[in-house]
Amino acid sequence: MYKDIITYTLAKDIDENHLISIASTIKETWMNQQKGFLKWEIHKNNNGGYTDIVYWNYKEDAKNAEMKMIEIPNAQDWYACYKKGSINSIKLEQVL
What we know:
By secondary structure, this protein is α+β, with helices and mostly antiparallel strands. The chain is built from 3 helices and 4 strands. Strand 2 and strand 3 form a beta hairpin. The radius of gyration is 13 Å and the shape is globular.
């Protein structure tokens, strides 16, 4: 299993309900169609930021989907949810 872990802060004037609405649409219209996609969790951090955990079968599946991100319908609405400069990402590949 492979996981993308993304931390971020919401942009000004973006609330949690808006984030959830946009993310749900992206998941239904795009993520669910990506090979190897398993699930996408959104967590609120104790510092007011957010952490997403996106689960994939394999690293290659995640990389292939990443290369296709320009195909996401209304991606600008999704990207507008994030405060510029606040996104950090780590990749985890399960070994045990």
